[in-house]
Amino acid sequence: EVQLVESGGGLVQPGGSLRLSCAASGFTFSSSIMSWVRQAPGKEREFVARISSAGPTIYADSVKVRFTISRDNAENTVYLQMNSLKPEDTAVYYCNILGTSYWGKGTLVTVSS
Fold first, then answer.
1. Is the dihedral of CA 41, 46, 48, 53 positive or negative?
2. How many Å apart are CA 63 and CA 46, to the nearest integer?
3. For residue 42, what are the contacts with CB-CB under 8 A and spacing of at least 6?
4. Is residue 94 predicted with pLDDT exceeding 90?
């Protein structure tokens, strides 16, 4: 059974940082392209970043430079380091196996003073 479990969300002040984790199981993680997607209140889901099995990454323009996606294939985990957070980054962040309907339950990030 495919499982994706996100963690690391919380409340942070503008300009702060958070590191999200997504623990994966039930599929061949090392050969899968993984992505982070977010959904802000009242808005549609929005692509954030993706990382290929060998490491190449792609980012949404809105998070480029501020966010870094990485993966540990030995630990079956994908990360999202978020720096210089802004109120508009407030959303539920989801982990996804790219091109599939497998999603985690998400972790809430709130950026507010």
1. positive
2. 11
3. none
4. yes
The pLDDT of residue 107 is 98
Structure tokens at 95: 């982990």
Residue 12, strand partner residues: 111
The Cα 100–Cα 98 span in angstroms is: 6
Q: What is the pLDDT of residues 42-83, one digit of tens each?
A: 999 999 999 998 889 999 999 999 999 999 999 999 999 999
Average pLDDT of the chain is 96
**CA 80 to the chain's CA centroid:** 5
Q: Which residues of 84-94 are buried (b: 16+ CB within 10 A; e: fewer)?
A: ebeeebbbbbb
Contacts of residue 32, Cβ cutoff 8 Å, sequence gap at least 6: 24, 53, 97, 98
